[in-house]
């Protein structure tokens, strides 16, 4: 039996190897004894497994496989149900052993027999469940079939489909309600001044209440309803929020706390622990704002669409998202977003930038080019939507020069918030001070920081102080150099 276990299992069954051994023994006996009948038996015993092997290679059965995920995309630590339907598309008899190939993170691949006992109409249906603790895109399948010839002498295993991609999105953390939205309510409506000549499309009316000034009476609505109606001092426009997602390798590679997985099993995402914290924060914040009817704009540190490098993005060039469909598109795009850009930091370059900035030399302007983060392209895009809603920046490790470059962007948002994800939150006081003086509500966090605590920190000290600081910057206050 030990010898049989060492023989290749993908060519012959134990029965097939037994016939070959018997044929070889008969051939030896025929040679020694000179018996023609033993020679004939030897040829038969050897040829039969070989013919069976050729038969399963040439006349292999064909199958059709239909695979469905429910839900089609699943959040991390969530469960999706995989439904398989397998039908034979060519004539064949006998049972077939099948196996669904899975990435190692999903455990042992499920195996099943075809046809199933409950098969109907020539189609066998199977079902199993998958769960992943990490985001990404994973190939589920193909189904491999192992079948033999009618005599059970030879085996053949081959893939009968190409498999399908399962998208695992980051799970959102429920965030507490904060003052981020300023005066906006939970329904996304913001209080504004009444326009001089409001149109009917812009006006919302309600019944007159005691104490309402008569100048707010809407006479046309009063005539229609037969009672006094007044204008509401609310705009019906959809609020906007802009998020800057830093995806630079150098911003998340520094320090000992970052563990990279450039070849993470079936998903080859380039990521780190700090970057994963940022992705979860981006998913949670966008979900939090989408529930309050915000339309969302997502950009990277260079002013490009945030997901233009994400393999899971349905539209890599999209930067504006709204509604349930927009939130789903963001979740799918975040599934395969990863770090990009140069892999090596250049401290000499950063020190030169800082010296140039402090000396006010003409060379400082030259550092703000298309390859520099927080460049003019980003500022132009922020300026196009100036003061239409809050601005949020999720960034990695910043140099003082990069913080100074980002600082003026606070003037383009109704409120500006920044989370600096780093390995040592206490060593970023200079960076935070640069941002705060410019009008940002800034906080430094690590991958161990609770997201809800970081989010609630934006309310510390009240939102008014941040708004006043931002207004000072817009009036011309200088950004610290």
Structural features, described:
- The chain is α/β, with parallel strands linked by helices.
- Helices cover about 30% and strands about 20% of the residues.
- The protein has a six-stranded mixed beta sheet with strand order 17-16-15-18-19-20, with helices on both faces. A four-stranded antiparallel beta sheet has the order 5-4-8-9, covered by helices on one side.
- Helix 12 links the parallel strand 19 (about 415-420) and strand 20.
- Helix 2 (about 15-35) packs antiparallel against helix 3 and helix 6 runs antiparallel to helix 7 (about 325-335).
- The chain is elongated and about 120 Å long.
- It starts with a helix and ends in a 7-residue tail after the last helix.
- Residues about 180-200, about 260-265, about 345-370 and about 460-480 have low confidence and may be disordered.
Largest sheet: 6 strands, mixed
Uncertain spans: 182-202, 262-266, 345-368, 461-481
Shape: elongated
What is the number of helical segments per DSSP (H or I, 4+ residues)? 14
Main-sheet strand order equals: 17-16-15-18-19-20
Structural class: alpha/beta
The average pLDDT is 80
SS elements, strand count: 20
User: Over the alpha carbons, how many angstroms does the gyration radius reach?
Assistant: 33 Å
Percent helix: 25-40%
Q: Tell me the span between the first and last alpha carbons.
A: 80 Å
Q: Determine the strand fraction and express it as a percent band.
A: 15-25%
